[in-house]
Design a protein that fits this description.
This protein is of the alpha/beta class and 479 residues long. It has four domains: 5-175, P-loop containing nucleotide triphosphate hydrolases (Rossmann fold), CATH 3.40.50.300; 181-239 and 329-356, no CATH class; 242-327, Arc Repressor Mutant, subunit A (Orthogonal Bundle), CATH 1.10.10.10; 364-474, Trna Endonuclease, Chain: A, domain 1, CATH 3.40.1350. Helix content is 44%, strand content 16%. It has 21 helices and 13 strands. It has helices spanning 5-15, 33-41, 59-76, 88-102, 115-118, 125-136, 152-160, 181-190, 197-207, 211-214, 223-232, 241-249, 253-264, 272-279, 285-296, 320-328, 339-342, 347-362, 365-371, 423-439, 471-474; strands spanning 21-26, 45-50, 108-113, 143-149, 172-175, 270-271, 300-303, 314-317, 379-386, 394-402, 406-413, 445-452, 467-469. The strands form three sheets. A five-stranded parallel beta sheet has the order 2-3-4-1-5, sandwiched between helices. It has a five-stranded mixed beta sheet with strand order 9-10-11-12-13, with helices on both faces. Strand 11 (406-413), helix 20 (423-439) and strand 12 form a beta-alpha-beta unit.
Length: 479
C-alpha cells in the first residue's frame, strides 16, 4: 500500500489490544478510507456493511431500504434466517446475535462503511447505535468497531463531539488526508505511469492528491491526453464527479455549491459578511453549518490574512478538484474533446497553473519548512493582499511567520524553466520587502524567498531572494 504507514501501524496496534475499540475514520470522498481498512484487515473482518447513498432518493422510503440492505449483509455473511428488522434497534440486536454466534474469543472486527448515510431523517439510527455500543459493544473486550464516512461534519458532530450517549465513546480517530506529492509519485510508479515531477505537480493541481482519481490515469497516454480523456471527452468518467461529490457528502448540496462557487472567484477568499451580502442569504445557523461542513471536509479553510484582525476571518477555497472544475468545466457548455492538448500553453491555463501552484505550496508547508532548515520551528502561514498608495498594489503569495524572529516572504512561480529576475521585478521585490518590514515588529527579519519549479537564473538581480526552494523540495518525505 502506498503511504498510510502510520495509519496502518495504529490500526494494527488497536487490533492487537485487549479492550473494546470504536474507531472513526473520516476524510474527503475518494481519499481511500475503505481501501485502508480492506488492505489493513483483509479477511480479518468479521462483519462489514456499507450504507446506501441517499442522493436522489425519497427520504420517506429510505429507512426501509437501509434496514433491508443491512439485513441482506447479515444474511450473505452467514446469519441464520430470521425476521427482517423493522427498526435500527432490531437491526443492531441482530448484529449482536450474529457476533455472539461467531465469538471464539479472538478479535472481532465490524466495519460499517458510509455510516452517515445510515442516519436518514427520523430513523432513530444514532439512538440505536448508541444503545448497541453502550449496552453491549463497549463491554466486549475482543470487539473492534470501525466506522467510516465522507460526511466529515456528520462524523464530528454525531460521534466525535457528541454530547449525548456517545460522548467520549470513540476510542481512536483517523482523519485520512489526500496524498502528498511524494506519495502521488509512488502511486504513479506502482501503476507504471511514467510522469515527470512537473506533470505530477500539475496532476496534483487537478486531482488534489486523491488516489481514486489518480487511478484513472492511463500509462499509455500523455498527461494532456489523460486530462482530455477524464474530463473533456464525451461521457468522460470524471465530468460529473463535481456534482456527485456534493450530493453524496452534504445535506444541502446546492446551497453549499453556491458558497464554493463564490469563494472560487477570489483567491484570497471572502469574509462571512461578504458571503452573506453577495449570495443574498441569511446570516444564521444554516450558513454556519454549511461553512463548517466545507471546512471539516477540507474544501475550505478559515484564516486571518496578514495584518487583519480576528473579525476579518476569510473563507478560502482550497480543494484543487473544485477549482479545476469551476475554472474549466462549469461555464463551458461546448468544449473540444481535445481541449487540454490544444490549450496547454494558453493564457487561461497558464493563469490557472499560477494560483493552483500556490495551493500546492500551502498543502506542503512541512516540506517547505524542511527545505528552509526549520522543520521544528513553530510558525504561522498566511497570504497577504493589500493595496498600496500607488496603482501597482501588493500581493504576497505566502508568508511564513516564525517564532525565531524571521518572516519568509514567499513568491510562488510555476515555470517550465528556471525563473529569471529582471530589473523591474527586482525593484518590486525590494518594495514589498520594505513595506512588509514597516508592518512587522522591529525584531523580525524579512527573508525574500522564491518557490519555483526549476530554480533561479543567477544574474545581477537574483540576490533579491535569500533562499530558493524548487519543485524537488516539495517531493521530500517529512517525518
Amino acid at each position: 500500500m502506498i503511504g498510510r504507514k502510520q495509519e496502518v501501524k495504529e490500526l494494527n496496534r488497536l487490533y492487537n489490544g485487549k479492550k473494546a475499540e470504536l474507531v472513526a475514520i473520516y476524510g474527503r470522498r475518494r481519499v481511500g478510507k475503505t481501501y485502508l481498512v480492506d488492505e489493513t484487515f483483509g479477511d480479518r473482518i468479521t462483519f462489514r456493511h456499507a450504507g446506501l447513498s441517499p442522493a436522489g432518493e425519497n427520504a420517506r422510503g429510505l429507512l426501509s431500504l437501509q434496514l433491508e440492505h443491512f439485513y441482506n449483509s447479515l444474511d450473505v455473511q452467514g446469519m441464520e434466517k430470521c425476521e427482517k428488522p423493522k427498526s435500527w434497534l432490531d437491526a443492531f440486536l441482530l448484529l449482536e446475535k450474529f457476533l455472539q454466534g461467531r465469538d471464539n474469543g479472538e478479535r472481532q472486527v465490524v466495519f460499517l462503511d458510509e455510516l452517515p448515510w445510515l442516519d436518514t431523517p427520523k430513523s432513530g439510527f444514532i439512538r440505536a447505535f448508541e444503545a448497541f455500543w453502550n449496552t453491549w459493544g463497549c463491554h466486549r473486550k475482543n470487539l473492534m468497531v470501525i466506522v467510516c464516512g465522507s460526511a466529515n461534519s456528520w462524523i464530528q458532530d454525531k460521534l466525535l463531539n457528541n454530547h449525548g450517549g456517545l460522548y467520549n465513546r470513540v476510542t481512536y480517530e483517523i482523519k485520512l488526508a489526500p496524498f502528498k506529492l511524494n506519495e502521488c509519485e509512488a502511486l504513479y510508479k506502482r501503476n507504471q505511469v511514467n510522469m515527470s515531477r512537473y506533470d505530477i505537480a500539475q496532476s496534483y493541481m487537478i486531482f488534489g492528491g486523491i488516489p481514486y482519481y489518480m487511478g484513472y490515469v492511463n500509462p499509455e497516454m500523455s498527461f494532456a491526453q489523460n486530462v482530455d480523456n477524464l474530463f473533456f471527452k464525451r461521457n468522460a468518467v470524471l465530468r460529473e464527479e463535481y456534482d456527485r461529490l456534493f450530493a453524496s457528502v452534504f445535506v444541502a448540496p446546492e446551497a453549499v455549491k453556491s458558497i464554493v462557487q463564490l469563494l472560487y472567484t477570489r483567491n484570497a477568499g471572502y469574509t462571512r459578511r461578504e458571503i452573506v451580502n453577495r449570495l443574498k442569504i441569511t446570516d444564521g445557523g444554516r450558513l454556519s453549518s454549511n461553512l463548517n461542513a466545507l471546512i471539516s471536509s477540507d474544501f475550505v479553510i478559515k484564516y486571518v490574512p496578514f495584518g487583519f484582525g480576528k473579525r476579518e476571518e476569510h473563507y478560502k477555497l482550497i480543494d484543487p478538484f473544485c477549482i479545476f472544475y469551476l475554472h474549466f468545466l462549469k461555464k463551458q457548455k461546448k468544449v473540444s474533446e481535445k481541449y487540454w492538448q490544444q490549450n496547454t500553453t494558453a493564457a487561461s491555463v497558464s493563469a490557472w497553473r499560477g494560483y493552483a501552484f500556490e495551493n500546492v505550496c500551502f498543502n506542503h508547508i512541512e516540506q517547505i519548512k524542511t527545505a528552509l532548515g526549520i522543520p521544528a520551528v513553530i510558525s504561522e502561514e498566511s497570504a497577504w493582499s493589500k493595496k498600496e498608495d500607488d496603482t501597482e498594489g501588493t500581493q504576497i503569495d505566502l508568508l511564513i511567520t516564525r517564532n525565531d524572529n524571521v518572516i519568509n516572504m514567499c513568491e510562488i512561480k510555476y515555470y517550465s524553466g528556471p525563473f529569471k529576475v529582471d530589473k523591474d521585478y527586482y525593484a518590486k521585490i525590494l518594495r514589498r520587502q520594505a513595506l512588509l518590514a514597516e508592518l512587522v515588529s522591529p525584531k523580525m527579519a524579512v527573508h525574500s524567498t522564491l518557490i519555483t519549479t526549476f530554480g533561479l537564473i543567477d544574474n545581477e538581480h537574483s540576490g533579491a531572494f535569500v533562499k530558493t526552494i524548487v519543485l524537488d523540495d516539495l517531493f521530500r518525505e517529512t517525518v
